[in-house]
Amino acid sequence: MKKNILFVCKYNRFRSQVAEQFFNKHNKNQGILAKSAGIFKGKYPLDKLQVEAAKKLEINIGKEPETISANELGKTDMIVIVSDEIPKDLFKYNRKYLQAILFGKSLTSS
């Protein structure tokens, strides 16, 4: 059975796209698929540092930003928030996510 992870940031312009592509590039478990979305649709241009960081990681961050949809949430098994600006409580309406929400910074903190 396939598991779906959704990386979420504010605009799906950089952070969540990088997380999605980095995960899918390095993930060896074909039963897990990552996608990304933003709370708002972001049309802001990327800055030079973001473009350089993506190039270093060999990640293409050129996809059109997407917002979270109810359909996508219905297919999601875990949400990983990669932005300090997104409150975990935003997803509490669905009990499915109470134990399946991670903050990106908690993945790297010791």
Quick structural gist:
The chain is built from 4 helices and 4 strands; from the N terminus they run βαβααββα. It is of the alpha/beta class. The chain has a 4-stranded parallel beta sheet with strand order 2-1-3-4.
Describe the protein.
This protein has 110 residues and is α/β, with parallel strands linked by helices. It has one domain (3-108): Response regulator (Rossmann fold). The protein contains four helices and four strands. Strands 2-1-3-4 form a four-stranded parallel sheet. The chain is globular, with a radius of gyration of 14 Å.
What can be said about the biggest beta sheet? 4 strands, parallel
Measured between the Cα atoms of the first and last residue, the distance is: 31 Å
The tally of structural domains comes to 1
Strand order of the largest sheet: 2-1-3-4
Text of the CATH class? Alpha Beta
Q: Any idea what the CATH architecture is? A: 3-Layer(aba) Sandwich
| Integer-rounded radius of gyration | 14 Å
Query: Would you tell me which CATH topology applies?
Result: Rossmann fold
- Flag low-confidence runs: 105-110
User: Helix/strand/pairing class, anyone?
Assistant: alpha/beta
Proportion of residues in β-strands: 15-25%
On the 0 to 100 scale, the average pLDDT is 81
The fourth-level CATH homologous superfamily is Response regulator
Q: Given the structure, what is the number of helices?
A: 4
